[in-house]
Amino acid sequence: MKFGVFDHIDSSGRPLAEQIEERLKLAEAYDRLDFHALHIAEHHSTPLGVAPSPSVFLALAAKRTRRLRLGPLVYTLPLYHPLRLAEEICTLDHLSAGRLELGVGRGVSPLETAAFGVDWDKAQAMYLEAFQVVMQALTSRSVSFRGEHYRFDESPIILEPVQKPHPPLWYGVFNAESTAWAASLAVNVVTNLTAAAVRPITDRYRAEWAKLGKNPRRIPMMGINRHVVVAESDREAMEIGRRAYRRWFENFTALWRARGVPLPRNIAYSEEFDGIIKNEQAIAGSPETVRAAIAHQMEQSGANYFLARLAFGDLTLAESLASAELFAQRVMPGLSAVAA
Question: Model's pTM, two decimal places?
Fold first, then answer.
């Protein structure tokens, strides 16, 4: 069982340069505290993502950390020229000395892709083609491809990644049907679903992995992603979480509200922090409370990777640092023992 951090890098209300510097200081702390990886989102035209180019932030983070693995969760492939993205991936893998974790996907918001002139009805097909091109570019010295959206004829490839054949792959899942593809390529998966809803996904992934005759001890990571606040008492953690979540929820819904479009059910969250605590999409409390809640969810979900959102909304740097310290020092060790 491993522990990572996920961050939308949503607007805190502080100046952008100040907020980015705070997130880099947090990355240094995650590195020191022995978290496995920092995964960041890609969002556009919304305060949910004020670092909309993952490669820019990750390049900075790579030079501020030594061990922490780093990656987008996910690159929204329809918004990129696939050969240009492959070059960025190789560059980041070198800048991080082989610590890149490569998340890919179509994206979750038709409103965001529309801002770039991408038809949502074509986004899935564009993603599938772009993924094939990127994988070919990472593993060969030229790219030839004939598709509906992309065409290349012996395009030369100069850069190559440090990690062979390519950095570890990641994908966000909402249903068990995605696991056959993920297992076939050893793709790590992450979901925001409740623990009970995650179980069919992890069970199916293990079944697909076994069907392929692969070693169960080498199964990729199957992660759940949760807002997390750790403080010395349950009351303090809930007070901090309630305040910060209000800002995060405003950021999360801002573009949808501006366009007058209801949130899709598969990405909807409760308006109040107590609501996502109740449905297990957030965990807040003392180290003992948080440890017990995570242990319960991991057992119920069958997941083997836990991602904590330790910075969200208007949490201050001091609050996120304190939460990360308590999580690493008083939550992770106990959970590792339980997992063992």
Answer: 0.96
